[in-house]
Amino acid sequence: MIRFITSALLMTYVGVVSADSIDDSLLGLDDMLLGDIPAVVTPARVAQPRVEVSSTLSVLSGEFIRRSNIQYVEDLLFHVPGFFVGPYWNSYRKVVAYHGTELDRFRRIQVLVNGRSVYSSVYARVDWPSLALNIEDVERVEINRGPNASSYGSNSFLAVINIITRSPLDTLGSDVFVTSDDQGNRRIYGQYSGLSDNWSYRVSASRGTVDGYQFKGDGDPRNDGHVQTSGNMFFVYEDPTQKVDIDLGVTNLDADVEFYEVPGVSYGDTRPKLERDREHIKLGWEFEQSPTHTLKMQYYYDKSDRLEDHDVDVYGQVLNLLFAQSLPEEQIYEGHLLSDLDEERHDIELQSIWTPNSDYRFVNTVSYRQDSVDSATYFDGHYKDELSRVSTNLSYRALDPLILNAGAMYEHSTLSGDYTSPQIGATYKLTPQSSLRANVSQAYRVPDLYDQKAAWSYVFNGIRSIPAYSTGVPAEKIIAYEVGYFQNIPTLGLSFDLSAYREKMTNLVGSNKKYEDALEDGGVLTPATDLKATIDGIEAELDWRSAKGTLVRTTMSYQDTQANHKNISESVAPFITTLFLSTPLNDSFSINSRYIYGKEIATYDYEALGLWLSYRRVAGSTTLTAGVGANIRLDNEPYIRVNNVTEKKTSYFMFANVSF
């Protein structure tokens, strides 16, 4: 009942604001908005009008990001149809899932930051808290909802998230931001941007503390919470024919992790900790060789070191069983149970964009990537994979209203073999601002290094336990069919998108591989590899920006899943809807609200409401923004996992930002 009352009140509020503002929208929008045709870069890796795109796309604009009061980039994705976001084992291990299919480490989306892949090919997942990325630095987020392996490679399986940061020219000066709530979560951010001749630059840093969950579902205490510290430097050089960008970032993650619940292992007064350091450097160059031909080249290096330390007391009986020792069974041995994982990546890419005339555009790309891992825990040493890629994508205006898009990528991996991923789509423009589209694509999720080469052991005081080995798994495969309709109405500040899809997935690999199960199976890690799923669904989103400054974004997704294993079915949320509303009350104050409802997200319903009041004051070159608000859980269930329970259903927060 609360859900429906809340929805009715919010929708009524939107309706009242809309009625007051629609006349002003027709008459008072500025000229730039009146003539605006939104452009996107993600589907074909080159700027094109969104109305001509044949795949399903969402765009989270910079204005929405800054008004949303969201603190971490991954949490933005709850406002994209089909996504849900939240912690799993720990507060730092977030699930960012599109169309479900697994929970404990979601492995089926590609994530890019300014064209740099942050997806781990070693132990497949995106480790969001380790990214040197501040939400205040983000210009927009484009999400290709559906496979796009013809542009981004085999692991672009269910979606591609492309995070694009702001130009330093848009952030000139300084900013300081602080926020805190009554549950121990707090964050501080600062940046300085400057300009020197053709160079612009930004230096930014942040530190966020998350207290995490305090208790399990049965009332036992949890060891949760983390501190994330990151810094980033971004330099851009531009002249009439070329652009150079340099991106450097470092992150430290200091996190509490769950206790090992193993008979014969105890912690005393100690608590297990995880430390992860990550750094990257990216160099990009873009050169306009002629009005019809542009060359792009980029290189990036990414390195992360991860160490998890459990200071424990272990009975000799456990060491005899797992470490093949011959010790007195009742003797207690003190020591450190360590888990380490060091990853490194080099990636270089060359791209050619050729537009011989207004009817054709060719985007051709070649790249080489080297991934390596060093881990005593998971690999008993060092492994390396090399990946070579060649892709081509064509856009052809067959008739004035009909645009054909086609592409394919060929990949060769030294460990997993060869894969080809094709895609073909068509867009029919009904008007300059609206279109119908259809798209068919095929993609793979190739086995990661852990799937193929794992030799998993626990390391206690430098001694390895009995290893559990992986023997390799087949590549997961998806064929996706999409149809959709996009409409932009700039005179109203309104755009909306409707889509329907079918995704047929085969050879899905279960991610719940356990060490103790492997020992019972003769030391072999044997995940289920014959999992199948077919998902049929519809998704919708609407964005509205009135002349008086009201901003509305609402989304809806429904999916019906047929699978041959309950782990897949239970990881799917059949229905999710979100509503965000921000409207000025006067020149200084605005009121903002957010509502999220998810039905059976990992079998649990989720319902949340956020309300906050913002104040903005400009004095010369200084701008102050501040606010207070509350987040309210409207359900009485855990979130995603049975041990993710919140005692306080309402949390209060405050924030302030000074720009000068």
From TrEMBL:
Cell location: Cell outer membrane
Topology of the protein relative to the lipid bilayer: Multi-pass membrane protein
Source organism superkingdom: Bacteria
Protein name: Outer membrane receptor for ferrienterochelin and colicins
InterPro entries in the record: Beta-barrel_TonB (IPR000531), Beta-barrel_TonB_sf (IPR036942), Plug_dom (IPR012910), Plug_dom_sf (IPR037066), TonB-dep_rcpt-like (IPR039426)
Keywords assigned: Cell outer membrane, Membrane, Receptor, TonB box, Transmembrane, Transmembrane beta strand, Transport
Species name: Marinomonas fungiae
Record flagged with keyword Transport: yes
